[in-house]
Design a protein that fits this description.
By secondary structure, the chain is α/β, with parallel strands linked by helices. It contains 6 helices and 5 strands; from the N terminus they run βαβαβαβαβαα. Strand 1, helix 1 and strand 2 form a beta-alpha-beta unit.
Protein backbone atom coordinates (compact mmCIF):
# COMPACT_ATOMS: atom_id res chain seq x y z
CA UNK A 1 0.00 0.00 0.00
CA UNK A 2 1.29 3.44 -0.92
CA UNK A 3 0.72 6.37 1.41
CA UNK A 4 1.57 10.03 1.09
CA UNK A 5 1.14 13.19 3.07
CA UNK A 6 -1.03 16.01 1.82
CA UNK A 7 -2.40 19.26 3.19
CA UNK A 8 -5.76 18.26 1.74
CA UNK A 9 -7.88 16.00 3.93
CA UNK A 10 -9.17 13.86 1.07
CA UNK A 11 -7.08 12.88 -1.92
CA UNK A 12 -9.14 12.39 -5.04
CA UNK A 13 -8.11 10.16 -7.91
CA UNK A 14 -9.23 11.40 -11.31
CA UNK A 15 -9.25 9.08 -14.31
CA UNK A 16 -9.17 10.96 -17.60
CA UNK A 17 -10.15 8.97 -20.67
CA UNK A 18 -9.10 10.98 -23.70
CA UNK A 19 -7.96 10.34 -27.24
CA UNK A 20 -6.60 13.89 -27.45
CA UNK A 21 -3.14 14.08 -25.79
CA UNK A 22 -2.95 17.89 -25.65
CA UNK A 23 -6.35 18.22 -24.04
CA UNK A 24 -5.62 15.40 -21.59
CA UNK A 25 -2.39 17.14 -20.57
CA UNK A 26 -4.32 20.36 -19.91
CA UNK A 27 -6.94 18.55 -17.80
CA UNK A 28 -4.11 16.77 -15.97
CA UNK A 29 -2.53 20.10 -15.07
CA UNK A 30 -5.82 21.58 -13.84
CA UNK A 31 -6.61 18.63 -11.57
CA UNK A 32 -3.03 18.27 -10.31
CA UNK A 33 -3.09 21.96 -9.26
CA UNK A 34 -6.07 21.05 -7.08
CA UNK A 35 -4.24 18.21 -5.31
CA UNK A 36 -5.82 15.40 -7.30
CA UNK A 37 -3.96 12.32 -8.43
CA UNK A 38 -4.51 11.95 -12.17
CA UNK A 39 -4.35 8.89 -14.38
CA UNK A 40 -4.78 9.31 -18.14
CA UNK A 41 -5.88 6.51 -20.44
CA UNK A 42 -6.26 6.81 -24.20
CA UNK A 43 -7.61 3.31 -24.86
CA UNK A 44 -11.13 2.47 -23.67
CA UNK A 45 -10.27 -1.11 -22.67
CA UNK A 46 -7.33 0.14 -20.58
CA UNK A 47 -9.54 2.81 -19.02
CA UNK A 48 -12.17 0.31 -17.91
CA UNK A 49 -9.44 -1.92 -16.43
CA UNK A 50 -7.87 1.07 -14.61
CA UNK A 51 -11.27 2.10 -13.24
CA UNK A 52 -11.76 -1.43 -11.98
CA UNK A 53 -8.35 -1.40 -10.25
CA UNK A 54 -8.24 2.09 -8.74
CA UNK A 55 -11.94 3.00 -8.27
CA UNK A 56 -11.42 6.70 -9.08
CA UNK A 57 -13.34 9.47 -7.37
CA UNK A 58 -14.03 11.02 -10.76
CA UNK A 59 -13.90 9.85 -14.37
CA UNK A 60 -13.70 12.45 -17.14
CA UNK A 61 -14.48 11.06 -20.59
CA UNK A 62 -13.34 13.01 -23.64
CA UNK A 63 -13.21 10.56 -26.56
CA UNK A 64 -14.68 10.56 -30.04
CA UNK A 65 -16.76 7.39 -30.16
CA UNK A 66 -20.16 6.41 -31.45
CA UNK A 67 -23.30 6.78 -29.33
CA UNK A 68 -23.49 3.01 -28.89
CA UNK A 69 -19.82 2.79 -27.82
CA UNK A 70 -20.35 5.68 -25.38
CA UNK A 71 -23.40 3.97 -23.87
CA UNK A 72 -21.45 0.72 -23.45
CA UNK A 73 -18.47 2.54 -21.91
CA UNK A 74 -20.68 4.43 -19.46
CA UNK A 75 -22.51 1.27 -18.40
CA UNK A 76 -19.21 -0.57 -17.86
CA UNK A 77 -17.77 2.30 -15.84
CA UNK A 78 -20.93 2.64 -13.75
CA UNK A 79 -20.81 -1.09 -12.97
CA UNK A 80 -17.08 -0.93 -12.25
CA UNK A 81 -16.49 2.12 -10.08
CA UNK A 82 -18.31 4.23 -7.51
CA UNK A 83 -16.91 7.59 -8.61
CA UNK A 84 -18.69 10.32 -10.49
CA UNK A 85 -18.63 10.27 -14.28
CA UNK A 86 -18.43 13.44 -16.35
CA UNK A 87 -18.54 13.06 -20.10
CA UNK A 88 -17.69 15.67 -22.69
CA UNK A 89 -19.70 15.19 -25.86
CA UNK A 90 -20.41 16.88 -29.15
CA UNK A 91 -24.14 16.45 -28.78
CA UNK A 92 -26.36 17.08 -31.74
CA UNK A 93 -29.55 16.68 -29.73
CA UNK A 94 -30.85 16.69 -26.19
CA UNK A 95 -31.61 12.99 -26.69
CA UNK A 96 -27.85 12.25 -26.83
CA UNK A 97 -27.35 13.93 -23.47
CA UNK A 98 -30.31 12.10 -21.96
CA UNK A 99 -29.04 8.78 -23.30
CA UNK A 100 -25.59 9.42 -21.79
CA UNK A 101 -27.25 10.15 -18.43
CA UNK A 102 -29.37 7.00 -18.68
CA UNK A 103 -26.23 5.00 -19.46
CA UNK A 104 -24.44 6.20 -16.35
CA UNK A 105 -23.02 9.70 -16.79
CA UNK A 106 -23.55 11.98 -13.81
CA UNK A 107 -23.16 15.01 -16.02
CA UNK A 108 -22.61 15.78 -19.70
CA UNK A 109 -20.78 18.87 -20.84
CA UNK A 110 -21.19 19.86 -24.48
CA UNK A 111 -17.96 20.56 -26.36
CA UNK A 112 -16.17 22.85 -26.63
CA UNK A 113 -15.81 22.96 -22.85
CA UNK A 114 -14.27 25.92 -21.07
CA UNK A 115 -11.55 24.54 -18.73
CA UNK A 116 -12.83 26.68 -15.86
CA UNK A 117 -16.31 25.19 -16.24
CA UNK A 118 -14.92 21.65 -16.26
CA UNK A 119 -12.94 22.25 -13.06
CA UNK A 120 -15.85 23.90 -11.24
CA UNK A 121 -18.24 21.10 -12.21
CA UNK A 122 -15.70 18.40 -11.33
CA UNK A 123 -14.86 19.90 -7.95
CA UNK A 124 -18.55 20.29 -7.17
CA UNK A 125 -19.15 16.61 -7.95
CA UNK A 126 -16.17 15.67 -5.81
CA UNK A 127 -17.55 17.71 -2.91
CA UNK A 128 -14.07 19.07 -2.54
CA UNK A 129 -15.07 21.65 0.05
CA UNK A 130 -12.37 24.14 -0.86
CA UNK A 131 -14.40 26.45 -3.08
CA UNK A 132 -12.40 29.60 -2.36
CA UNK A 133 -9.15 27.84 -3.25
CA UNK A 134 -10.48 26.83 -6.67
CA UNK A 135 -10.92 30.42 -7.69
CA UNK A 136 -7.82 31.80 -6.01
CA UNK A 137 -5.70 29.83 -8.45
CA UNK A 138 -5.93 31.35 -11.90
CA UNK A 139 -7.26 29.01 -14.54
CA UNK A 140 -5.56 29.68 -17.83
CA UNK A 141 -5.30 26.88 -20.32
CA UNK A 142 -4.87 27.01 -24.04
CA UNK A 143 -6.60 24.16 -25.84
Amino acid sequence: MVTWKSDVETVHIVLIISDQPETAASWNSLFTQRNCIVLIESQISDAVQSARLIDPSLVVIDVQISKAERATLLKELRATCRGRILTLISADTVDEILEANRSGADECLVKPVNPAVLVVKAMAWLGHGHRNEWFSNSISVTL
